[in-house]
Amino acid sequence: MRKLAIIALTISLFAACSSSYETVRTATISGTITNPKSEVITFRKGDVSETDSLSETGSFEVTFVMEEAGEIRFSHGGERGTLYARPGDAIVMSLDTDEFDETLVFTGDAADINNYLAAMTLLSDSLPTHRDIMIRDEIAFLKVQDSIKELKIGYLKTVSDEEFKTLVNENLYWETYSERLEYEMSHEYYLGLPLDDFSVSDDFYSFITALDNNDSSKLIGQFLFQKVFNRTASVYYSRNIDC
User: Fold this and answer.
1) Which fold has domain 2-126?
2) CA 164 → CA 37, 123, 195, 233, distances in Å?
3) N or C end of the chain, less CB within 10 A?
């Protein structure tokens, strides 16, 4: 589930970045696999797949026609991963199948972005689960949520692509407030509390009126937020209508 969340994040970021790369070019992905578990590695972008046989030293190279920046998924020996590529990129990757996620390293073009995404996959495995976050009391919930957000932002220091950094920050912005909308209902659900047995503080939902809903560059995040808002709005208003 955590890897699916990371993939979902990368898909949204790739979609937003793609408008900057419109010329039809190619992207090359090469690298080396230590302790290979099969003789091939396969890369997929949409309906297009490219498979290369590993050399005796575990090296490989594939080329994709890239009309726009986007996600490329790869698989080897039952393990899977995702990388980000732009038209014209020459990406180099290396990994050891004995510790697939822990040893996945990118060099060459887009290395900062791909190493950030790889780090997020590892980080997600060490963070509290959704349940662990939602069962905390309100003060503890807000504290851990802010800590996780700042931790993820800290990893962006290694990324030089300003457009990508902006998109990550915007995604975190909406992700944070979507979780806050979910908190009251999820807290009751995970703790098995009767409906309306738990209430947040009077100003907990004040962030809703402060959100920037007019920036068209944040439409992907707004879509995520709107889905959560629609699911929880009836609860919010029913609990505040008599206030």
Assistant:
1) Immunoglobulin-like (2.60.40)
2) 33, 19, 41, 31
3) C
Cα 234 to chain center, whole Å? 28
Half-sphere exposure of 126 (CA within 13 A, CB side): 10
Q: 88: closest CA among 110, 117, 73?
A: 110
Burial of 234 (0-12, 13-18, 19+ CB in 10 A): exposed
Angle value at C-alpha 182, between 180 and 187, nearest 5 degrees: 100
Tokens linked to 110: 């887009």
pLDDT (tens digit per residue) in 169-223:
888 888 888 899 899 999 999 999 987 788 899 899 887 776 665 554 444 444 4
Query: Using alpha carbons only, how large is the chain's radius of gyration in Å?
Result: 21
Q: Where are the domains of the chain?
A: 2-126, 130-240
